[in-house]
Structures are given as C-alpha cells and as structure tokens.
Design brief:
heterodimer; A: alpha+beta; six-stranded mixed β-barrel; 22 strands; 52% helix; B: alpha+beta; two-stranded antiparallel ribbon
C-alpha cells in the first residue's frame, strides 16, 4: 500500500524546490507504520500532509529555497494590485462597464434559476432513511418502451421466491375517489399499498401506528391536509370515508410530507382491498398489463443487486415464454435514480435527465452570448491597455501573471453582475414557477448553500468570459505593446469577434422566428375544428344532485335548448381502461366518458350508424365506439360493428352506435381509441345548451333554479368554449417561456451590439472627421460605420433560418397537427431583427456622423 | 531574560536530549506522544523545530537514506550550547519557584 497519490502530489507541488526530503521521509515512515497498526492510515497521511503544508516549517524552507527575497513571500500582494487596477479601469470606462454588467446580469439570471432548480431536484427523496436499500422494479417492453410500472403479479412472485428481500411493497395508483362534501365534492387520489409502505419509506404518522395502520383491508391513512378538508377540526381517527369500493375506516393520519419526493398521494389504502380484482384475471392477462402498478423492494444492508437482477431476467424469460403477444424485461432502479432519472411511461410528472439537459442548454444559450459580449468588447479595447501590459511584461510580469490579472478583473465584473442577476432572479422566479406543472414540489428560495453555488457560478462565468481576452493579453509581445503597433495577431482576434457576433445574432433571430411560428401554431390550434361544437354549452357541476332532477328542472327554462349529462369535460383529458372484443384475448387501451342519450346531439357529434343511449335504470349495457376503435377491432364498416359485444372490466357491453372521430384530447396526436359509456352514477357534469343572448340573465336564472333543488351545493358553471381554450394553456406557457428567453437573448445581443458600435464610433471619429471635411454626407458616414455589422447580421440570418426549421421540427414535432412555415413568417422575423439591430446602431452612428469635424480634428 | 522558551519547545528540546544520536522527526514525535499521551501532528512538531533552529538552540544535519522511509534521508538534531543554556535557565527558574513555594507542593502527605 502506498500513500494517497493526491496528497503526495499536493504536498510536493506545494513545496516546489524547497528542501523537504526529510519531511517526506517522516510522512512516509509514519504512514508505513500506520498501515500495519491502524485502519485509517490514508486519512492520517492526509491530515499529516496538510498539517505540514500549513506549517511554519515548510513556509520557512520555501522562503530559503526561493531565488528572490520577495517571490515566495506574499502571493496576495500582487492580487491587491490587480484589484486596484481593475477597479480604476472599470470606473474609467463606466459606459462599457455598465453595458457589460447589464448583459452579464441578464445572462446569469436565467442560469441562477436553473441552478436553484437543479439543487432542488437533486434533493428529491433524500429524506427517506432507507433510501440506499430501496429499489423500484421497472419494465422494458419489447416495443421499446420503458415503464415505471410492472405487471401486478411480479410483486407476489418476488415475495414468494426470492429470499433476500426484506419487504416487497406494491403501490397501485388506482385509488381515486370523490368525497361528497356538503358544498362541493372533494377529489382525492392515492395508492393501494402494503402495510410496509409506512415503515419502509419515511412518511411519519401524527396519529395511528405505522406498523398496523394498514393491516385491516378496510382501513385508510390520510394526509393531514386531506383529513382537515374532509373532517374539519373533528378528530378523523375512526371515522369512515367512501372510496371506489365501499366504506373505509381512518386508521392513521400522516404528517404532510415534503413535496420533493416522486410519490404523490393524499390517501393510502391497503393493497389487500383490491388484490381480489387481480385474481379474476387470467395469468396471461395479468402479466401483459403495465397498468399503474409499481413494485418497490426494501433490501438488506450489503444486498447483492447483480444476483437479484439475474433472477429478474430469468423470471421474465420464463413468464413470457408462453405469452405470444407481449414481452417485457425487468430492471432494478435504485431510489436515488428515480428523480432525476430516465424518462419512463406512467411515472407521473417527473424530472427526467432530458428535461435537465434542455434546461441547462437553454441557460447556456442565454449565458454564453453575455459572455461573448464581454469577450468582444474586451478584445476590441485591447489596444487601449497594451501600454500597461507592455510595461508589466518589461518589469518581469510573467505570462500566467498577466493571465491571472485579466481573469481576476473579469471575475470582479461577474461577481458584481451577480447582484443584478439575483435581483432579476427574484423577479422572474414567481412567473417561472407558475409556468411549470411540477411547481408545488419546487422550493426555489435562496438558501446559504445556494448562494454559494451562485458565487461559484459567477466565478466560473468570469473564467469563461475572461478566457479569450486574458489569453490575448498574456500573449502580447511587450515591444509591440509599448509601441502601440498591434501586429497581425489582432486579425485573428477580429475574426473571433466576428464569429461571436454572428453567433449572437443567429441565436437572436432563431428566437424571433420561433416566436413567430409558435404564435402561428397557437392561433391554428385555437381555431382548429375539434369535431364537436363547444359554443353556448354551459358545464354545471352536479355534486350530489340527482341528474334526472337537474335535467327536468333546467329543461323547463325557456332559454335552455338541451341538457345532457357527462362524467367529464369534453376535450379535457379522459380516463382510460382496457377492453377487448368478446371472445378475444388481446385487449386494447381505450379512453372513455360516461354520457347520457342527449350528449351526442348536444355536442353536434355525428353518428355514423346505430343510435344513442336510451334512458336506463338497469346499469350499464351498451357503448358507442368511435371510428378509430372500430378500425382497431377490424370491422369493415360502422354497421358491422353494431350489435357486437365488448368486455370492459367485469362487464360485457354491446355496441349500439359508431361515431365519427372527434378530438377528445389535444392536438398532439390524432384521436385514439374511444367509446362513450352510460352509467348514470358516474355523471358529474350537466351540459346545458343555451340559446339566449343575455348570458348574465340566463346564468342568474339557472342559479335560481339550481338553488331550489341542490341542498346548498355551490353553483359552478363554466362555458365549454372557455374550458377548451384553457386546454391550450400549455401553448401559452410555452409561448411565454420562449418569449421571455427570446427577450433576454435579444436584449443581450443589442447590448453587445451597442458596445461594439460605440467602440467603433469612438475609434473612428478622426476618420469620420476627415471624410466629412472631404464632403461625405451624414448618411454615407452612418452607413460606413454600420455596414460591417449589417454584413454580419446577414450571415447570421443564413444560419438562423435552417436552424429554426430544425427546431420547429423538434419542438412542434410531437404535435400531430401543425402549421407550415411560410416565406412570409421568415421575412417577418428578419425584418424585426434588422429593425432592432439598425435601431440600436443608428443612435450611436448618427451622433458620430453629426459631430462638427472641426471639433474632432482641431487637436491634430 | 534572554529568549522565552515555550512549554512545547522545552518538551521538544528535552526529548531531543533524551534521544541522543537518534533524534530525528519521527523518533521525536513518537517519544513525545508516548511520554505525554497526546498526539501531535508532524506539521506542528516541525514548525517548533524550525523556530528552535532559528533561535540557534538546535543544530541539524542530514543522515543517510533508509528503506523504511521510501529511500529518503533523515534529518538529525542536536542541542547547541545556546539550547543548553536556555534549558538551564528554564530549569533554574522552575527550581527557584518550587523552592520558594509557600504551600506544600508535594503530592505526598
């Protein structure tokens, strides 16, 4: 065994030329003895080496070994000088300093947001005491999809057959119910899970015993918030609530858990309550379903993952040997790899690695241009400081010292900009949170730790922004520098500047074009014919009021044309289930809604064949399928489907109608498999079609009628057309995000451009004066000063257009229905950018071109 | 008073004296650790040794290389005349104080 290399290297590096052979010997001797006698020899070596590094002994020996009295004495003294020079320089060129800092502050603000975001998401699920021993089993199907779920029987199989597992915990996400409260129904959701859930994961109870709370099949554990909503201030323990299948008794109240976990639930009920439903399925069927059913494993310390994984591989091969149409393999996923983790189906809202890459990429896209501005302006102004550098070099300043000086100067700028960035960060934080689905789980407050990250980030940014200028200065030849005759090198620097400007404007233009296209897509989606009429339909929440009563009472009103019932809002997300044709085993996922007989007419849906539902009292008997499902079942035409039976859950329903496809979800994809069912118990919403033009009056009339029959339930009504529009919120938030980022990118680019133009104008005032004396007009002078930049902007547009096409493909690619980009859209974007660029430049160039030449030339 | 001798400095000087010809870094460290039952870091020890050398209480020379130290040599220390004087001053100061103590410092009753 040898001493830790890093410590050794560090020590040798620190000591340099000093004579420390005996000290190294001492270190090694002690280490060798410790290896024999103690367990933590390496750690002790580290401690000893560090104690020597900070000791007086080594400092003294270094001093003795150094060639000059001062050189090893106080490396900080020179930094003091750099700071002073930097400070004076920044003050002297206030205009550029402000431009630079504003740009960097804007550029860094968005990154600060992402840094906070990352640090939050990396804390996910960290609070579980057993986190290192918990694994989730995930599935990969032969179709190439990855699921966070597993077939239901896998858990039991593991429990019975594999000895080394402490706990197998089923988590089934199908617990969903609405608790009827006097004012309005309270939706609640949660898991059916094993009793060990409470002991394995760290979710403490404030009432009830975690070991026994879920033992009884009719028990339920609620979170504090939910319990409070249902029972108010009454002690909920021992009370009963109704879930999907009967009455459950509250046996535990859970402390509201921190939201930074991948679990989301309000209630936990025992898995034993639903386990019977799985026994009804054939083995074949049960192993072919990945249906919101998760399995978590608690392993012993020192568990053997490889062996368990091998067992899972073997099991999968064995099980699926006999199942022809479904194949899957299983994999263990450590608790720490869930969030952030790979993208999985049925995992609920998650932070995947991909979203991280995108967020980080966006942050960089905004940050880099700000850094480039700094780089650009610094290099452009290099000439003005070359005398100072020449002098430093002549007096013995070494390359790396000059380099350090300019890096230090940049770091000062970025750290000061950090203040501005923090201010912007505080302003945009709220808006950002409101745009995200995961928002409630995110804590974006500024802690000390995060502030340290910010500081590190600012210093890092300083390195990035200052690297090129520092390299440039460090390489200067002192003779050229003092003579102020910049040699050929400046050309390469000019080239670099041009590349950076082109990059910025490409980015800027891409954002502008992106905005134009998104806007167009949004308008297109808003006016898209969804296949049903959403005008003049008022959706009224039923709560516990009898649907028949509502239909009768509302129909009596003169302005009500029609009343229908449905289980959900049209076009607003629908539940799914699995179905198969009677006598066939292959099941299909199908989306559904419960509606009554009036619904189809009310929504202007088109029946291709068959008839609508009859009012019934005998429970569910029939379905109306859509065209897509008809084709999925391989019927040649609508009439052929009528009269056939399908299996849904435990029911057998006959097909009584076929309906033309309509868009029951958003425009990501064409309509999928869908059918209407008709179970009056599931009705939640009355769809009232009104004809009156006096909306306010009709609403009041409806409310009066409602009050008479509702037992005090609230009257909540929304126009379907408004709700449909609300479904496009995702577009709006995308537009907002994109618009905001675009705004940042554009302002940074304009700041950069302004800096460059100011510099050009300043350094060419004499030339402009002479030209003016010779008779040049203002306009031709302004053109002279801007034409270089205009050329760069033109080149940028050559890059930006194809880039936009590419991004459009990527971003809107998931939308099945999307608009085409036309020449007009692109020209609009180009005109916008050129207007911005020319506007920015004009203010400065016009000023320069207008100066009286006598002013600029009189000092010659 | 010539130069003040700290407690640890005195300890190091006396330990070097007890080690005779074998007074080098690790030996000094071990000896002090054994006798005082306290653990000291190499850095602290060498800082003190360096200060003692600056005060001319110690003289040092490099010895031969040894295998157990990865082929690196030892630096041996020896007390100088000044060192002896400083020790003597310290001791006589203590003896004096012991002798003049007004209470009985002896632990035996």
């Amino acid at each position: 065994m040898r001493p830790p290399r890093l410590a050794e290297w560090l020590f040798n590096k620190y000591c340099g030329d000093a004579n420390v052979d005996d000290l190294r010997g001492d270190l090694e001797e002690v280490f060798k003895r410790n290896v024999r006698e103690k367990r933590n020899a390496k750690l002790i070596y580290w401690r000893q080496a560090l104690s020597l590094i900070v000791s007086y002994a080594v400092r003294k020996r270094k001093k003795n070994a150094s060639p000059h009295h001062y050189s090893a004495a106080n490396p900080l003294a020179m930094f003091g000088n750099y700071l002073k020079v930097a400070y004076r320089n920044l003050l002297r060129h206030k205009y550029f300093t402000i431009l630079n800092m504003a740009g960097l502050a804007i550029g860094m603000s968005i990154s600060l947001l992402f840094i906070t975001l990352f640090s939050t998401v990396f804390d996910y699920d960290e609070y579980h005491v057993n986190k290192n021993n918990i694994y989730r089993v995930i599935s990969h199907t032969s179709e190439g999809k990855d699921f966070a779920t597993v077939p239901a029987p896998l858990g039991d199989k593991l429990r019975e057959e594999y000895p080394g597992i402490k706990e197998v915990i089923h988590v089934d996400r199908k617990l969903y119910s609405e608790e009827p409260l006097p004012k309005q129904n309270l939706p609640m959701f949660g898991y059916f899970t094993d009793p060990a859930f409470l002991t394995t994961f760290t979710f403490p109870l404030v009432a009830g015993d975690p070991k026994t709370a879920l033992n009884d099949p009719r028990s339920v554990v609620l979170t504090q918030t939910l319990a409070k909503k249902i029972f108010g201030d009454v002690d909920p323990m021992g009370k009963t609530i109704n879930l999907n299948a009967g009455a459950y008794q509250v046996t535990g109240i859970m402390k509201d858990y921190a939201a930074n976990t991948h679990f989301t639930f309000q209630a936990l009920a025992p898995y034993s309550a639903i386990v019977d439903t799985f026994h009804k399925e054939s083995v074949h069927e049960a192993w072919s379903k990945l249906d919101y059913h998760y399995v978590y494993l608690l392993l012993d310390d020192g568990h053997d993952i490889a062996a368990l994984q091998k067992y899972l591989d073997r099991t999968a091969a064995e099980i699926y040997k006999d199942i022809p149409d479904f194949k899957a393999t299983f994999e263990l996923q450590a608790m720490g790899d869930i969030t952030p983790g790979p993208e999985l189906e049925q995992s609920g809202p998650q932070w995947s690695y991909m979203s991280f890459v995108i967020a980080g990429g966006l942050g960089l896209l905004i940050l880099l241009p700000a850094c480039f501005n700094y780089t650009n302006i610094s290099i452009a102004r290099a000439l003005k400081r070359s005398k100072e550098i020449g002098l430093r070099k002549t007096l013995g300043g070494m390359r790396r010292q000059i380099f350090a000086q300019f890096i230090a100067e940049t770091v000062i700028v970025t750290v000061v900009s950090l203040i501005g960035a923090c201010a912007i960060f505080f302003v945009i934080r709220g808006e950002f949170l409101s745009m995200l689905v995961h928002a409630p789980a995110l804590d974006l407050s500024l802690t000390f730790e995060r502030f340290l990250y910010f500081l590190l980030f600012a210093i890092g940014t300083g390195f990035v922004a200052g690297f090129f200028p520092a390299m440039h200065f460090a390489r200067l030849n002192p003779i050229d520098a003092i003579k102020n005759s910049a040699p050929a090198k400046v050309f390469s620097a000019m080239m670099l500047r041009k590349v950076l400007v082109v990059f910025q404007f490409t980015l800027c233009l891409t954002f502008i074009l992106g905005l134009v296209i998104f806007n167009k897509q949004y308008r297109y989606a808003m006016s898209f014919d969804l296949g049903f009429a959403d005008e003049n339909i008022l959706d009224v929440d039923l709560y516990q009021v009898n649907p028949d009563l509502v239909t009768n009472e509302f129909s009596k009103l003169s302005f009500v044309q029609n009343v229908s019932m449905s289980s959900g809002v049209m076009g607003h997300g629908v539940p799914s289930t699995w179905t198969s044709l009677e006598g066939r085993s292959d099941s299909t996922e199908v989306f559904y809604m419960h509606v009554d007989g009036n619904f189809i007419k009310n929504m202007d849906l088109k029946l291709l064949a068959g008839k609508t539902f009859e009012p019934t009292r005998n429970g569910e008997t029939s379905v109306i399928i859509n065209e897509t499902l008809m084709k999925r079942f391989n019927f040649a035409g609508p009439s052929e489907a009528i009269g056939q039976n399908v299996n849904v859950d435990t029911l057998t329903l006959s097909i009584i109608g076929v309906i033309k496809d309509f868009h029951f979800w958003q425009l990501h994809a064409p309509p999928g498999n869908f059918f209407f069912r008709s179970n009056p118990e599931k009705f939640r919403i009355a769809n009232v079609k009104i004809t009156s033009t006096d909306v306010q009056g009709s609403l009041e009339e409806l409310e009066r009628t409602w009050k008479k029959m509702s037992n005090g339930s609230l009257f909540t009504a929304k126009f379907l057309s408004d709700e449909t529009a609300a479904a496009f919120d995702s577009y709006i938030s995308l537009l907002k995000i994109f618009g905001f980022l675009g705004l940042l990118a554009i302002s940074i680019s304009c700041l950069g451009l302004l800096g460059m133009v100011v510099y050009t104008a300043e350094s060419r005032t004499r030339e402009v004066g002479i030209r003016k004396v010779m008779g040049a007009s203002r306009i031709s002078l302004a053109y002279l000063l801007t034409k270089g930049f205009l050329k760069l902007m033109l080149i940028a547009s050559l890059f930006a257009v194809p880039l936009t096409m590419l991004f459009n493909q990527m971003l809107l690619g998931q939308e099945y229905y999307r608009v085409a980009i036309t020449f007009l859209d692109i020209s609009l974007g180009l005109v916008l950018m050129f207007a911005l660029g020319i506007g920015t430049m004009a203010s400065q160039t016009w000023k320069t071109a207008s100066i009286n030449p006598a002013e600029t030339l009189k000092y010659e | 008073m010539k130069t003040y001798l700290g407690e640890f400095e005195e300890l190091v000087l006396l330990t070097i004296a007890t080690l005779g010809d074998d007074a080098y870094g690790v030996a000094i460290k071990d000896s002090i650790e054994q006798r005082c039952e306290r653990s000291i870091s190499i850095g602290a020890l060498h800082s003190t040794i360096t200060r003692l050398e600056e005060k001319k209480f110690l003289r040092s020379w490099m010895g031969g290389a040894t295998a157990e130290r990865g082929g690196r040599s030892k630096r041996f220390y020896e007390i100088t005349k000044d060192g002896k004087e400083a020790l003597a001053t310290a001791k006589s100061l203590r003896d004096e104080l012991w002798a003049e103590s007004k209470i009985n410092l002896s632990l035996q009753k």
